[in-house]
Specification:
By secondary structure, the chain is of the alpha/beta class. 43% of the residues lie in helices and 15% in strands.
Length: 254
């Protein structure tokens, strides 16, 4: 790994980090402190937390913060983070979860990949074969990858990872609709349909043992939302996107 002055790279390349958080006061401070080793260009979105999150964030007045009182969902928090990043003049945003499953030391992977793919969404692909991965996460991972392939024709190793780099300067004209966990599928599919490439880098992941790890994913409700979204996207792909791309390819050959 090339050793760089990472704070300078973040400033020069106009890259920020977005941390959406909801009731993760047990890990939030550790996550933020690990990110500050690399940059202080951090936007924290407090998605209506009711624990001690507000008190923790008050100790970081140097960071940009977006807060609202009602919990809406991770997708909405990310969308608010993107809007704030654009307002502040950033061109790229790296999103990282606040539950401690991601590692700040993987940030250089995204910066190095960005040098070769400056207009791409870069996904931090997790090793989903390790023993600590919960069964429902492994199933959801395979389920999501399959339907993403149906909708786009592109095979990716991990379409559910929340550790990503977004080229927000190329995404400004895309209007998104979802507000909860399903947003992370919508943003990939609809960005790809708009011509934004998607690639990946390997990252580490940590899952605390059951009973310790805090997750706000509700298996029945959120899986239902994801299924409905995939149904809509598949219909849209079959009726419009795939025919559109087919006729475009014919025009290029003629």
């Amino acid at each position: 790994m090339i050793q760089l002055d990472y704070p300078s790279v973040f400033r020069e390349k106009k890259v920020c980090i977005i941390v959406p958080t909801y009731n993760n006061d047990g890990t939030l401070q550790q996550v933020v402190n690990s990110l500050l080793v690399f940059t202080d260009q951090i936007i924290i979105v407090n998605d209506g937390s009711t624990d001690s999150t507000a008190a923790i964030l008050a100790t970081y007045p140097q960071l940009q913060q977006v807060s609202y009182s009602k919990n809406i969902g991770k997708g909405w928090a990310l969308r608010q983070g993107f809007a704030k990043a654009v307002e502040l003049g950033y061109k790229h945003a790296i999103t990282i979860d606040s539950d401690g499953q991601h590692f700040a030391e993987d940030l250089p992977q995204f910066l190095e990949k960005m040098a070769f793919a400056p207009d791409a969404i870069i996904i931090g692909a997790r090793n989903m074969d390790q023993a600590s991965i919960p069964g429902k996460s492994s199933f959801g991972h395979k389920f999501s990858n399959f339907w993403f392939w149906v909708e786009t024709g592109l095979k990716l190793p991990d379409t559910q990872s929340g550790y990503r780099l977004y080229p927000i300067h190329t995404m400004r004209n895309i209007r998104f609709f979802t507000k909860k966990f399903e947003f992370e599928i919508e943003v990939l599919v609809r960005s790809f349909w708009k011509g934004i490439p998607i690639t990946h880098v390997p990252v580490k992941v940590f899952y605390a043992e059951k009973g310790v790890r805090v997750t706000h994913f509700r298996p029945f409700k959120d899986f239902t939302r994801i299924t409905i979204l995939n149904t809509v996207l598949v219909i849209w792909a079959l009726l419009y996107i795939h025919p559109r791309d087919f006729f475009r390819s014919l025009k290029k050959k003629s």
